[in-house]
């Protein structure tokens, strides 16, 4: 049985987190770690837990920057943008 582990992201360099972002870490059979932030529809992975967390943090920042550029997105991504903006803003 694969054991999932939940964690909260509460800090990102250059950004203020107003409410924690929940992520779920799941070990893969090859020893790597899959990490998912369900509320942001965002996934990443890494060879270690620390690498997976670092990768998802980079992806959250990239997603924030991309979605902040404009509102020319599908309704699904506009909902993700709204959710993301409720969690964080640039410092």
Walk me through this protein's architecture.
Strand 3 and strand 4 form a beta hairpin. The strands form two sheets. This protein has a four-stranded antiparallel beta sheet, with helices on one face. The protein has a two-stranded antiparallel ribbon with strand order 2-6. It has 91 residues and is an alpha+beta fold. The mean pLDDT is 93. The protein is globular. It has one domain: 2-Layer Sandwich (Double Stranded RNA Binding Domain).
Give the arrangement of secondary structure elements:
Elements: E1 5-9, E2 15-17, E3 21-27, E4 33-37, E5 42-46, H1 49-68, H2 75-87, E6 88-90
Antiparallel strand pairs: 1-3, 2-6, 3-4, 4-5
CATH architecture: 2-Layer Sandwich
Q: What's the helical proportion of residues?
A: 25-40%
Q: Tell me the overall shape.
A: globular
Uncertain runs: none
Q: Give the percentage of residues in beta strands.
A: 25-35%
Q: What is the arithmetic mean of pLDDT?
A: 93
């Amino acid at each position: 049985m694969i054991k999932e582990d939940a964690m909260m992201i509460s800090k990102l360099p250059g950004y203020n987190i107003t409410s924690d972002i929940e992520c779920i870490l799941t070990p893969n059979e090859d020893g790597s770690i899959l990490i998912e932030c369900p509320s942001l529809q965002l996934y990443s992975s890494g060879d270690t837990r620390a690498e997976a967390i670092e990768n998802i943090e980079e992806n959250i920042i990239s997603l924030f920057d991309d979605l902040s550029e404009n509102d020319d997105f599908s309704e699904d991504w506009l909902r993700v943008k709204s959710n993301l903006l409720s969690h964080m803003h640039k410092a």
